[in-house]
């Protein structure tokens, strides 16, 4: 980035520059951030490629509304239900924050599934982005577990019995299943400690995991670059040119009169599109 | 993908990047527009569809469906398909095999599909898999969303004796009906119990099953009712063992 010279900087500007240089010298943060922001990405990106960012933004919103809810929520079997009612009916804007947290959960699930669908349909999980997909799949599973653990916290009968069933399903998995279920329930059955354990898993363990995996996921996305939509004009053109070159080379190699017969090229249609 | 194809991809992508444009501001502005629309949707829904609080747990009601968040409906609907009615529908299919196979396929997708082709119209198999998985998840979710709560009412056993009196009381205070049809109504998460006695499993089997269902039915999703007293368990098990043979409900 070049900027126009508008004369020497004032004292505030000098202090700011000094601070930036100080941090840059010790961390390389300025280089890193400008690499991240100003790295090139393919020219033709689709609106569908914004869904991952939207999922991440909603995760941030969930963290904020979740922190506010945690200020009023009481994770004890004899107090949880009343504290939810308190938040919903008494706390100023409590209903709004709880509503945003609840609808935010739905939005996040939908966005993560849509994002996964677009990655699948674009074939973006293919080389070299296989491990980006794996970290993403783990994020999907963690996000579902957020929903499972958060649901119980309301401590009403629907949620309670649904969680009983879900925990039994978990316990039925061979080898690790019973252990995982016992760890989550704090015992072999639902008991008074189950609620506070779910609370801790919901607000500390899984968010920590999600944040870590978002970090990994984003690192890979930035390092490998966002994929180009497979129908981009540039790639059609490149593919057509490669095919034409290959045909020309084959023709040049083949002796006169014994030219290789190739199928009529389908690409000119795409090429016409390119030139339009 | 073969080595040469991988290298060709890398070369092609490097070219796309070279002809590209910077992430800031050309991509990040789109990201923010979509994120802001999502926030607006969330706030709008929070305002127009106020969240409710359900009934507290310990009220001993039976007219509710034990229902998870909507994105787990498909798992619960699987339980209704594989409820152990015959050897083709073992419970373990719904609780373990199907979910874990799906999860493994999800994680392993890039290692299963290794062709270099990315255009979806040239990947008919991938397209078919996507359509099948999407429609079955959507269908199961829809079915889960429209399942209805059973009507609460007193159960009348014929003939009635000391055992059925206890059974009627226990069934009223525990949520059996949320998951089972007994008499005219009930939930469909577990099997219909009206005829369960005709399997002739014996009273002791039912006592053990009630105390710890998965010890008798691998992968069972039914909660354990070990906290019931011995006489209650015995009476309930006796009635269960006679359902459809000795006892009828109307
Ligand atoms: C919490 C959930 C997730 C977050 C916050 C997230 C975030 C992101 C972001 C911001 C991008 C950049 C491009 C875009 O927005 O499309 C991305 C790309 C990607 N994501 Fe995710 N993601 C999540 C879940 C998933 C899931 C479930 C999968 C698949 C199983 C996945 C696979 C990928 C892949 C392969 C890319 C690279 C795509 C490309 O380069 O075109 N992600 N993710």
Q: What would you say this structure looks like, in words?
A:
Chain A contains eleven helices and one strand. Chain A has 276 residues and is mainly α. Chain A has two domains: 47-224, Cytochrome Bc1 Complex, Chain C (Up-down Bundle), CATH 1.20.810; 233-275, no CATH class. Chain B is mainly alpha-helical and 250 residues long. Chain B folds into three domains: 22-53; 66-149, no CATH class; 157-249, Sandwich (Immunoglobulin-like). Chain B is built from eleven helices and five strands. In chain B, a hairpin with a 2-residue loop joins strand 3 and strand 4 (185-186). In chain B, helix 9 crosses helix 11. Chain B is elongated and about 85 Å long. Chain B starts with a helix and ends with a strand. Classes of the chains: A mainly alpha (276), B mainly alpha (250). At the A-B interface, helix 2, strand 1, helix 3, helix 4 and helix 5 of A face helix 1, strand 1, helix 2, helix 3 and helix 4 of B. Strand 1 of chain A pairs antiparallel with strand 1 of chain B.
Structure summarized in a few sentences:
With 276 residues, chain A is mainly α. Chain A has helices at residues 11-27, 29-38, 51-70, 80-89, 94-121, 130-152, 157-171, 177-185, 192-224, 233-253, 267-275, and one strand spanning 40-41. In chain A, 36% of the residues are buried.
Shape of chain A: extended
Order of helices and strands of chain B: HEHHHHHEHHEEHHHE
- CATH hierarchy class name of the largest domain in chain B: Mainly Beta
Largest sheet of chain A: none
Using the CA coordinates, give the radius of gyration of chain A: 27 Å
- What is the name of the CATH topology of the largest domain in chain B? Immunoglobulin-like
Mean pLDDT of chain A: 89
């Amino acid at each position: 980035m070049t900027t126009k010279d508008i004369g020497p900087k004032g004292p505030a500007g000098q202090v700011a520059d000094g601070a930036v240089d100080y941090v840059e010298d010790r961390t390389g943060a300025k280089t890193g951030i400008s690499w991240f922001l100003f790295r090139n990405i393919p020219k033709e990106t689709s609106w569908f490629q914004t869904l991952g960012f939207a999922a991440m933004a909603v995760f941030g919103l969930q963290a904020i509304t979740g922190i506010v809810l945690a200020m009023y929520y009481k994770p004890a079997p004899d107090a949880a239900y009343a504290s939810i009612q308190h938040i919903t009916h008494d706390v100023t804007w409590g209903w709004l924050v709880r509503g945003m947290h609840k609808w935010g959960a739905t939005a996040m699930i939908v966005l993560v599934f849509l994002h996964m669908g677009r990655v699948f349909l674009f074939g973006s999980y293919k080389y070299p982005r296989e491990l980006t997909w794996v970290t993403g799949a783990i994020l999907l599973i963690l996000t579902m577990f957020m929903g499972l653990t958060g649901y119980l916290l309301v401590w009403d009968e629907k949620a309670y019995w649904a969680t009983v069933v879900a925990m039994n399903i978990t316990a039925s998995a061979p080898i690790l299943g019973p252990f995982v279920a016992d760890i989550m329930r704090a015992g072999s059955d639902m008991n008074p400690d189950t609620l506070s354990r779910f609370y801790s898993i919901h607000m500390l363990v899984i968010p920590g995991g999600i944040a870590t995996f978002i970090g990994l996921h984003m690192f890979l996305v930035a390092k490998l670059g966002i994929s180009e939509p497979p129908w981009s004009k540039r790639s059609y053109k490149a593919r057509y040119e490669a095919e034409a070159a290959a045909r020309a080379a084959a023709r040049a190699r083949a002796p006169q009169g014994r030219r290789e017969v190739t199928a009529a090229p389908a690409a000119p249609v795409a090429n016409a599109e390119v030139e339009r | 993908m073969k080595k040469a194809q991988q290298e060709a991809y890398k070369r092609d992508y490097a070219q796309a990047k070279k002809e590209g444009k910077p992430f800031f501001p050309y991509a990040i502005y789109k990201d923010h527009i979509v994120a802001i629309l999502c926030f607006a949707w969330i706030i709008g829904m929070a305002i127009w569809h106020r969240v409710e609080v359900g009934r507290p747990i310990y009220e001993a009601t039976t007219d509710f469906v034990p229902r998870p968040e909507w994105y787990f409906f498909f798992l619960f609907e699987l339980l209704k398909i594989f409820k152990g009615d015959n050897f083709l529908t073992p419970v373990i299919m719904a609780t373990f095999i199907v979910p874990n196979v799906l999860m493994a396929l999800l994680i392993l997708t890039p290692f299963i599909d290794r062709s270099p082709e990315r255009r979806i119209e040239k990947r008919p198999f991938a397209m078919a898999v996507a359509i099948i998985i999407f429609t079955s998840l959507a269908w199961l979710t829809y079915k889960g969303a429209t399942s209805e709560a059973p009507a609460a009412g007193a159960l009348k056993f014929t003939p009635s004796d000391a055992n059925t009196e206890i059974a009627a009381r226990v069934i009223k205070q525990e949520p059996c009906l949320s998951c089972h049809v007994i008499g005219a109504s009930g939930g469909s998460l577990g099997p219909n119990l009206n005829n369960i006695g005709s399997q002739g499993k014996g009273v002791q089997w039912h006592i053990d099953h009630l105390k710890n269902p998965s010890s008798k039915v691998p992968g069972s999703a039914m909660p354990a009712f070990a906290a019931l007293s011995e006489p209650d368990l015995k009476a309930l098990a006796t009635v269960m063992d006679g359902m459809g043979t000795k006892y009828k409900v109307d």
